[in-house]
Amino acid sequence: MADPTKSIPRQGIDREKILAEMQTLSGQDANWRDARTWSLVFHHSDPHSEFLKKAHNLFFDANGLNPLAFKSLKTFETDVVRMAANLFHGDRNVVGVMTSGGTESIMLAVRTYRDWARARRPRIKRPEMVVPDSVHVAFDKAGAYFDVDMVRVPLTKDYLADVDAMARRISRNTIALVGSACCYPYGTVDPIEAIAAVAQTRGLACHVDACVGGFFLPFLERIDPAAPRFDYRIPGVTSISADVHKYGYAAKGASTITYRSIDYLKHQFFAQVDWAGGVYASATIPGTRPGGSIAAAWATLHALGEDGFVENVRNVMAITRKLQEGIRAIPGLEIVGRPPMSLFAYQSTDPKLNIYAVGDFLERRGWHIDRQQKPASLHAMVNPNHAAVADQYLADLHDAVAYVRAHPDAAVSGSAPAYGVMFKTPLRGLVKKNVLKMMEAMYSAESEMPDLGSADVASGDDDAPPKPTAPPGIPKSVFALMKIWNRIARR
Predict the structure, then answer these.
(1) Which domains are delineated in the chain?
(2) Exposure letters 100-119 (e unless 16+ CB within 10 A, then b)
(3) Which of 201, 215, 217, 254 is least enclosed by beta carbons within 10 angstroms?
(4) Arithmetic mean of pLDDT over the chain
């Protein structure tokens, strides 16, 4: 709970004491340094991270808001965008900007196509974008911000965008189609050529969300020519978002949004000439833009080089194949779809094997586990430092499956039922309402972090499941009924 008496200290505190307290607080965070996480942090190597810190700190005080004042940052940004454009086989007409991350890149694309379409078809009052159901939630966020409806289309049995279904959902209000390379939930790459062909035929824009795969798939193609293509070689692709702070191993936050020509990008710009503070113009959402992240993105691309990226992809794919083969070797588990790169999800094929209970067991072994729905699955993004822990992860996963099979009540213990209830209940509006209440609680004056079934272990067995607690998105009465239903379903 927030301390209501907290205020700026009357006198400054010793800096060493401050750093020591910060170090102590960091001990509560996910343990990415020991490769115990499978998301959130993309770590290439300790020497590379130290190099990035130096590059970042050289421009710690610089502000990318005014490129005329900080010409160095404009050079860095121009170079990063050009390197990305060339990596994606764009011609000299491809243009773009750097952003703070994938969400901003996606939001800018949505806003740009909204205004691009309005300039060409002013009768559009409620623009729509047709997207596969696996598209990143940032598109929904952008739609909420900019009044653009996301028309979601179900996937094929292989967890790919259903292009025929997308074509059928095009209306007079449609402004763009979207495909992912790769999508976050499953690591699958949508059939971009087919999506772009439909968009081009119908006079629509086609955005490729390559925030995860943008700095991985092009180098995978140099190892495996069969790797899926997604870039400007494909007619009809009009823009690509790609994060440098993911598999480009830059400092957060650094992403790129590129367009096939200035005819699109110009609709992204904002200008105000009547402000009392003078003429104001901006190419991105923020005003102040941290110079350190722009500089570090430039530094990482130069430091790793093409050969370094290819070698990294080769190493990461070897780890990925080892993990996937180990998962497939465990009865009752399978990989979701056919992901071509280093991001994947796996699910249970046995109704009696609760995958969320498996995740609970892994977390009690010290792993940070990401859970998904549609289907219920666990998620992983592989990085070089996972080479040292792959065997241990597979061993713990084997133990987790054996434990859950031997203890059926694990499905209604810990956070397993919490996730199961949230993801399975048909009362989605009720879940959303209560999740928003949870957000209010987290950011209110008396803020507190939610507990998703993380009660203390009840017995002396470190692997024993903790007692379940109702998830923040579900009323306790509904949670109790779902627990009863789960017990009945297992019999």
Answers:
(1) 56-302 (3.40.640.10), 314-490 (3.90.1150.10)
(2) bbbbbbbbbbbbbbbbbbee
(3) 201
(4) 87
